[in-house]
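new request in #modeling-help
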Amino acid sequence: MHVHRLEKIWLSIGISMLAIFLIVIAATAFGMGMSPPSEHHHTIDPTQVTTTAPFDNPGLKQTGDNRYEAVMIAYAFGYEPTTLEVPVGATIDFTVTSSDVVHGFQIVGTNVNMMIEPGEISHMSYKFDKPGEYLVLCNEYCGTGHEYMKTTIVVK
Amino acid sequence: MKQPFDRSDGKLVLAHILFAFVALLLGGVAGMLQGTVRSGMITLPANIGYYELLTAHGVLMALIFTTYFIIGFLYSGVSHTLGGKLLPSVRRLAWIGYATMSAGTIIGVIVILLGKATVLYTFYAPMKASPWFYIALALVVIGSWLSGFGIFRQYMTWRKTHKGKVSPLFAYMSVVTMLLWQIATIGVAAEVVVQLIPWSFGWVDTVNVVLSRTLFWYFGHPLVYFWLLPAYICWYVVIPKIIGGKIFSDSLARMSFILFLLFSIPVGFHHQLMEPGISGFWKYTQVVLTFMVIIPSLMTAFSLFATFELYGRSKGAKGLFGWFRMLPWKDVRFFAPFMGMLVFIPAGAGGIINASNQMNAVVHNTLWVTGHFHLTVATSVALTFFGITYWLIPHITGRVLTARMNKLGIVQTICWCIGMFFMSGSMHTVGLMGDPRRTAYTTYDDHPDAILWMPYHVAMAVGGIILFIGLLILAYIVIGLMRAPKGESEYPIGETAEGAEETPRYLERWGIWVGIAVVLILFAYTIPVIDMFQTTVTSPGYVTW
């Protein structure tokens, strides 16, 4: 098939740009550990969340030097626990599941943004360098009270 | 060239187009109300909920308006280019499809308005709607299949009676569009029929949530290409004729459509990048495939502007961009789709951001995404469909587009662009600040971050009101077109530029292309789906609205 010379140039530039984008994404995702939240094979019976460890005792647990695990449950329409307090500079490993429908878990002003699905456990880590009161909200429609579903993380 | 349109076919096409515009108007009322509610300007009277409106808006705009318009438009072109009229059996099939889709639409809208299905058009299992909602949408899909079969039959009959000839470009593109639709809707049909309906009736207790979302997005992304391809048909085939130019290359146009068929389906994971239950490797694989589908859009952009430039230069345009002024800016049949093309440039760039694997975390489920598809489908596609309407209704009803209607059309286009600039512009901006989509009025207990979003919500509402005015103008134009003076209007079908090479035959070897599409789908989905069957814990249903 005949392709015009100018079109060849145009497509070469376009395809090279796409290739560069893909290489950058792959290098940061697989080489620097910036993958989207995809942890696999972490399942739970969604009807038994509150009696299954670690969700039978949601909250903050220190796991290392300035490192904490936040075990949280998303439900219609809120999060358990209702508020978290962490020191500035701490890294939090979030471990979250849902006890009913699909929810979102987004911390405004950060790159923490993940889906919480019944039966699955979602993981993500974030280092809170700036003090403040961070808004955690549900960004996946989950029912009538969806717009009230929130919690806060106080960093100080 | 000015042959009158077959009267029976005209009725069929008009029935589709008018149904589409009624859905658009109703969906527009819902959309305008959503904007004003979310900005806190009004509160809805007691019994109407924001999320019922949202469900109705999504279903009516994204599924009903688009599908009806597309099927009507494709049938008009197939009738015009494949023999001048539809075979009686094809026309019957199309009417059965229409009746099936309409039954589904009416049942669906009633169930939504009764508040029995406030689950949005994306279903969101394990939220459990009335089984009639799922049945209604299944009927819409089945009806569209019947209409697709009609197009295939007309095409195959033409090929049998025109051995050795290359099919008309419009018909070829229609076949690709409906093939894409048929392959893609298998996913949503499987979700609805195998998973949701039995579960909603209570015949099974639980639903596999991760699988249901995967099946939905297997359909959900090619859905956007199902909207886009008919707009591309207009850009490739119709626009060159309207401006008085030629199609740049017939074979490249066909090749770009084949690339859409191959690469727009195995990419659904880029809507699920932030989800658990899918491995990072397969997400990235589908991100790569998603980027492949950008290539035919780059080809399209080149072809269109090549057509424009060649035409301008043939009229004596000088300098690098002199041809730009030669284009028929005062002809709404050109102006509306052209604005659509222009908007597709930032819209497409935004799409690349959305699909960029981990970068999606910045925008996932924020208003940015809503802003994005209001540029792609609600501007690029919608303005092109409006542009088609300005000549299609006159052509099939044997009337003319009057100068007054032409001028009103230009006002409508400008109104639409201004409204969308405010609405989509503020959605994009505030989305980057973390404002979630699909959420009713809230300040999150006056959280300072959420308070900052409010001015953008007001701008969104203002844009929404301007867009609604645009819709009212459009409704007036559609009625005006039906009552315009009798006369002859052409069906603009472009011809290929002289000296363009003959179209290679392999582009019509459907077995090969569908085969490759299936192989790509199996490659992208087999292992992750097996994984979902093996590891996922299923969930009971909930009614949370």
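bot summary: Strands of chain B lie at 206-207, 539-540.
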